[in-house]
Specification:
Elements lengths: L9 H10 L4 H8 L3 H11 L34 H12 L4 H8 L3 H11 L8 H12 L11 H12 L4 H10 L8 H9 L45 H4 L6 E8 L6 E7 L5 E4 L7 H12 L9 E4 L8 H8 L3 E3 L9 H10 L14 H12 L11 H7 L1
Parallel strand pairs: 1-4, 4-5
Antiparallel strand pairs: 1-2, 2-3
Helix pairs in contact: 1-2, 1-7, 2-3, 4-5, 4-7, 5-6, 6-7, 9-10, 12-13
Amino acid sequence: VMPKLFPVGTRERFLELVVSGQPLDAAAAAVGAGDSTASDWWKASAGLPVAAGRAGGGLADRLPAAAWAPRLGTGRLLSFTDRKSIETGLRAAWSLRDIAADLGRSASTISREVARGRGPDGIYYAAVAHAGAHARRRRPKPFTLARSPGLCQAITEWMDQGWSPALIARVLREQGDTCRVSHETIYRALYVQTRGHLRADLHQQLSLGRSRRTPRTASRPDSSPFTDAFTISQRPADADDRAVPGHWEGDLILGTACKSAIGTLVERTTRYTILLHLPERHDAHSVAAAMITAMSDLPEHLRRSITWDRGAELADYAHIQLALNTPVFFCDPRSPWQRGTNENTNRLLRHWFTKGTDLSIHTAEDLHRVAASLNARPRPTLDMKTPAQALNEL
């Protein structure tokens, strides 16, 4: 039996009737097609769910009445008229660039639209593409992590290793993973109950370990006052733009009741980290001795300056300058954020050195292992190179 031939445009008319609200059988009757033919057309041309006999093939309850209707003009979103022009251009074998020029759009916009709007048969139908676009824009959408247990498991494993949500989101994007989320989605899953399937205690793996978010306007404790000869405003300009390596920032991370501490030094250009072992005391003499020992082996071009907060632990800065032949600069009063590279690194280090714990239990070998782990972590600021790789290049 020869298949029935239909006039040109019959299938397009049928699809428009379905997405406008008519049941499959009614739309089929309107264009003179049988139910089986209509079903085959819909399955081959549309990727949207269908329920035969219901208004709009199951779409009317999800799309507003005028969702697919033609609109004039070109706003930020593609209108049905725009999509009809794309369909006509493709039928005429126009290139995507020619179609984009005709609509006054970028070629990438048209390319993405065609890739999303093609049916299973590989043909682009404006009516179906327009209905699908509005279906995708409906809110609220299902929470990504609530339907991706595999992604939740990967995020959990990375955070257990001390990775930040921002780094996880960047790695997923760099890998081209289809299941990827933004860092904000991860934070919402950590701080809002019943969102996703992340462990309830996973927020403790964050550098700050907070169980809830803190407003930016929250008050911060004042820094300890310190009088010194050199201020950060006197630091060489090449330290600010990170164009020249060898400029370091440092501070202490403190343990329980400030009775134990670990010194941290971070190179601004490469983010390479050195940890200072202070097993007994962290007074000015101990910190100076540990810093001189740790930095003496660095070549001179990687010892251009050191910037520190106004803490009494660096009161012996003159001895440091003389021994290392390196100037020491201090932040302005109550401005620890001026050595932001070190502040960010200290937050990362809290994954291993939890606040409120005794830091004196960590041996020099422990500090070496932690520093090696942090220096082997890919950094978005280094185009996903590790600090160790960046320092080796220098």
